[in-house]
Amino acid sequence: MEPRPRSFYVLAAVFALFVLFLYGPTITIAILSFQGPQGGLTFPMNGVSLHWFADLFEQQAVGDIWGSFGRSLALGLMVMVVTVVVSVMGGLAFRKKFRGSGVLFLLIITSLIIPSILISLGVGLIFNIAGLNVHWSTSGFGSQLTWTLPFGLLIMFAVFNRFDASYEEAARDQGATPWQTIRHVVLPIIAPSLIGVALFGFTLSYDEFARTLLTAGSYNTLPLEIFGMTTNVTSPVLYALGTLTTLFSLAIIGVFLGGAFIAQRRRARRASDAGKGLV
To answer: Does residue 248 belong to any structural domain of this protein?
Structure first.
């Protein structure tokens, strides 16, 4: 076995430092969340316990942790559904050139380069001028869609750009209607990508701060609640909350990846069964 070149170890060390830089803050917060009852916000740790995790489930003197969590969860699911549906529709529409498609595409991705706080300010102003109530489920919902929809559409554009149209032609030759072709042919094939769009939509919404800051109204989402707690909470309960929300995010990612894996397996099984039927 030939010895590895020196460049391999240099690149490995650089990558290790990058990973440490990327996940170091999260790991530090996770460690400090296990402080003892008399522990503080910094090292050295004063004992080890689950005290601050238990404290999360007691009545808090400040903030509305679980209410904000419920709002973030509901908002994330709303944004996820709309992002998936509109992204698929947009991807299908852009498969063929139409007048103004280039301008429309630029308008779609422009919201990605506009500072998020300006989007939040603009949406909030529009609602105020129109005499509408600024609320997380209306103005906050619309503001977050300006963030999630461009990502979903870009993914769908890439998916349909390499989609084999012969599958649809074969379905139409068998007498399938346009809706049956989409439902029984197109959607099953792109199902793993749809799960990816759904994951993008949910996680981007769940963690979004700037575009929700001026559009949430009187009720905070979880990122806004955590930000507010940093100004008046001086105990490791804040770290415990961060650890739990991180674990929740990882669990959500695991669920979506599991769904994508199952969809991929079903697709491969159907292709295998179809191949056997042709033999």
So the answer is: yes
Two tokens, residue 196 = 């990816």
* Angle (CA) 127 131 132, round 5°: 55
* Residue 36 domain-assigned (yes or no): no
What's 243's domain CATH number? 1.10.3720.10
Q: Which two tokens stand for residue 79?
A: 């944004």
For 48, list phi and psi in degrees, rounded to 5. Answer: -130, 130
pLDDT digits (tens, 9 = 90+) for 79-116: 999 999 999 999 988 888 888 888 888 888 888 888 89
42 falls within a domain = no
Look-up of token digits 């001086």: 234
**Residue 206, CA distances (Å) to 203, 210, 215, 246, 249 in order:** 5, 12, 15, 11, 9
pTM given for the model? 0.83
Model confidence pLDDT, tens digit, residues 190-199: 888 898 899 8
What residue numbers bound the domain in which 229 lies? 63-277
Q: Are 110 and 155 spatial neighbours (Cβ–Cβ below 8 Å)? A: no
Q: How many domains does the chain have?
A: 1
Rounded CA separation 218/236 (Å): 26
Q: Is position 17 within any domain?
A: no
Do the Cβ atoms of 214 and 124 come closer than 8 Å? yes
DSSP string, 205-222: HHH--HHHHTTSTTS--H
Q: Where do the H-state alpha helices sit in the chain?
A: 6-32, 51-56, 65-93, 101-113, 116-129, 139-161, 166-173, 178-181, 187-207, 210-213, 222-229, 237-278
